[in-house]
């Protein structure tokens, strides 16, 4: 074993990221240096070739581009706008109802897109102007969109759940089932945060202390008829039924469900006349760009994981943590703290690819369920979308609104209560792990 080389692997990786190297390049560089030091440069080259072949040479990897493309088509088709309109009409008389409608629409939207930044981009343009028009404070409006956008990475079909399943060699179908209840619970926590804010600070939702609308914001959104509501929400519900219903009923594998979802989204977009040849070409190019970066990261992380295993560091870390007798609570606190720090500087997929190969032997030694561990990991990692300086969701909201008066500080402050809500969910899952496991049995 070359445990010291394993520590050098981590040090070189962190140094590469700090000086601005792309994460994938930093992973490959540190891995090649480590393997060459432990064995030989020739073997390092063979490891790289094997990682490139083995890590993505699998039918299962087809699920990533398919779900990304489906999310892109759904975003471009206007279904996000319709979903928000439905919940806006249903909750229009509730104090804080527009904020709750944003959370509800994000929850439904997440069940199709699987990518948080897509939700942030769509609802920044839809929900924020509507909330601001009805007197919501800038912090609450942008914080609600940025905060609820993280639901896209927890509620299936989630890109992070797919990546975790590939790394941990766990069933993606079981991971999808495991994400349902925690995702619904997180949506309820977010809705409760908005309702409590409306009660304690009615001015932030365009209300007087007695709950009445402010004079300049007295006009309520129009109420839609039942048939109109059904017509607007039906396409999204049909897609959810096709994709998730097909997976959970056993009719489709996740990859097949992704293909069915793309076909369904494409048909709906064409029927709505919201997707022309140029738009389809642009979406295809964006999908290709996203997937190349993800798959390249997976290749790099596979090589890094094998280099770490060759050094013996993961097994050594597992033995060391066991020897420290931190216990379940101590280990979980330390682990979540590490993810929170990494989330300030590194994107979600990269954190998964770097950390999970090291931690899997640890949780196996502690007898923890890898499905539950995946859900806790993803919730903790997604906190990084709302924390400076990286805070990807905050940057997406900022760029989507293109408002010079709206600062990143305003977005981060507005998202802070939702960040606390995510940490509350982690604590709940730690105490009641069955929330994540009851459907995945």
What this model shows, in words?
This protein has 441 residues and is mostly helical. The chain has one domain (3-437). It is built from 20 helices and no strands. It has helices spanning 3-18, 23-38, 41-56, 63-77, 79-90, 97-113, 116-133, 138-148, 159-168, 172-200, 226-248, 254-271, 277-311, 313-324, 327-343, 348-366, 370-382, 392-401, 408-431, 434-437. Helix 4 (63-77) runs parallel beside helix 12 and helix 7 (116-133) crosses helix 18. The longest helix is centred in the middle third of the chain and has 35 residues, at 277-311. The radius of gyration is 22 Å and the shape is globular. The two termini are 37 Å apart. The relative contact order is 0.15.
Fraction in helix: over 70%
Which runs of at least 5 residues are low in confidence (pLDDT < 50)?
none
Number of strands: 0
The string of secondary-structure elements, in order, is HHHHHHHHHHHHHHHHHHHH
Alpha-carbon Rg, integer: 22 Å
Categorize the overall geometry: globular
pLDDT averaged over residues: 84
Strand content is: under 5%
Number of helices: 20
Oligomer: single chain
Largest sheet composition: none
Total of domains: 1
Structural class: mainly alpha
The termini sit apart by 37 Å
């Amino acid at each position: 074993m070359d445990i010291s080389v394993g520590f050098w692997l981590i040090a070189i990786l962190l140094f590469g990221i700090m000086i601005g190297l792309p994460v994938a390049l930093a992973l490959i560089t540190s891995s090649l240096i480590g393997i060459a030091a432990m064995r030989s440069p020739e073997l390092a080259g063979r490891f790289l070739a094997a990682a490139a072949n083995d890590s993505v040479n699998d039918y299962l990897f087809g699920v990533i581009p398919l779900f990304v493309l489906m999310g892109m088509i759904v975003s471009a088709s206007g279904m996000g706008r319709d979903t928000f309109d439905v919940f806006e009409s249903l909750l229009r008389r509730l104090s804080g109802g527009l904020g709750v409608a944003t959370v509800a629409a994000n929850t439904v939207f997440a069940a199709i897109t699987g990518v948080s930044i897509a939700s942030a981009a769509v609802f920044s343009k839809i929900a924020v102007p509507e909330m601001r028009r009805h007197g919501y404070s800038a912090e609450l409006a942008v914080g609600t969109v940025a905060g609820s956008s993280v639901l896209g990475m927890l509620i299936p079909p989630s890109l992070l759940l797919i990546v975790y399943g590939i790394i941990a060699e766990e069933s993606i179908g079981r991971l999808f089932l495991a994400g349902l209840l925690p995702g619904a619970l997180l949506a309820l926590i977010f809705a409760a945060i908005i309702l409590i804010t409306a009660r304690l600070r009615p001015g932030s939702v365009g209300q007087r202390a007695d709950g009445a609308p402010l004079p300049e914001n007295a006009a309520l959104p129009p109420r839609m008829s039942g048939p109109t509501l059904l017509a607007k929400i039906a396409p999204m519900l049909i897609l959810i039924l096709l994709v998730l219903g097909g997976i959970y009923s056993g009719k489709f594998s996740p990859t097949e469900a992704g293909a069915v979802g793309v076909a369904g989204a494409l048909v709906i977009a064409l029927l709505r006349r919201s997707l022309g040849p140029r738009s389809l070409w642009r979406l295809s190019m964006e999908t290709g760009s996203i997937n190349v970066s993800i798959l390249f990261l997976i290749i790099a992380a596979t090589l890094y994981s094998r280099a770490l295993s060759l050094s013996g560091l993961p097994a050594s870390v597992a033995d060391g943590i066991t020897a420290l007798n931190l216990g379940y609570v101590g280990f979980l606190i330390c682990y979540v703290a590490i993810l929170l720090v990494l989330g300030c500087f590194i994107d979600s997929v990269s954190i998964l690819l770097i950390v999970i190969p090291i931690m899997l032997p640890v949780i196996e030694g502690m007898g923890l369920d890898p499905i539950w561990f995946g859900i806790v990991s993803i919730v903790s990692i997604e906190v990084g979308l709302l924390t400076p300086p990286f805070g990807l969701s905050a940057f997406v909201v900022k760029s989507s609104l293109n408002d010079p008066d709206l600062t990143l500080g305003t977005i981060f402050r507005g998202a802070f209560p939702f960040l606390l809500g995510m940490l509350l969910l982690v604590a709940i899952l730690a105490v009641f792990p069955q929330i994540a496991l009851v459907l995945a049995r």
